[in-house]
Write a structure and sequence with these properties.
5 helices; alpha+beta; two-stranded antiparallel ribbon; Helicase, Ruva Protein, domain 3; 35% helix; 104 residues; 2 domains
């Protein structure tokens, strides 16, 4: 959803030792610049939000498994979306197309 609202720019990484206690991951500082116009056309922001939230709620699941309650696998295939992909591998434009097919 961040990509829908803002352009992002990675400024720099922050190493774990910068924190106390040190996390087991690297952190990053990013700049968020709001879009003047949304980068993709979306009829219903709530549906886009629902699809994105559902897809990323269990990020290691495939689209088939994470979206099964709101978008049937046949629709994923009809949209030429590989149901074995994970949410982090598809574009904002793909999410916008999926939102059109989302059940209420």
């Amino acid at each position: 959803m961040m990509q829908y609202y803002c352009a992002t720019e990675l400024l720099f990484d922050v190493p774990p030792e910068s924190f106390d206690p040190a996390p087991k991951v690297m952190s990053a500082i990013v700049r968020l610049v709001p879009h003047q116009q949304p980068p993709v056309a979306v009829n219903d922001i709530a549906k886009l939000n629902r699809v994105v939230t559902q897809a990323f709620s269990q990020r290691r699941k495939t689209l088939r498994n994470s979206l099964e309650k709101i978008i049937p696998e046949e629709i994923l295939s009809a949209l030429n979306r590989d149901p074995t992909l994970r949410a982090e591998t598809i574009s904002l434009a793909d999410f916008a197309k999926l939102a059109i097919c989302c059940k209420e």
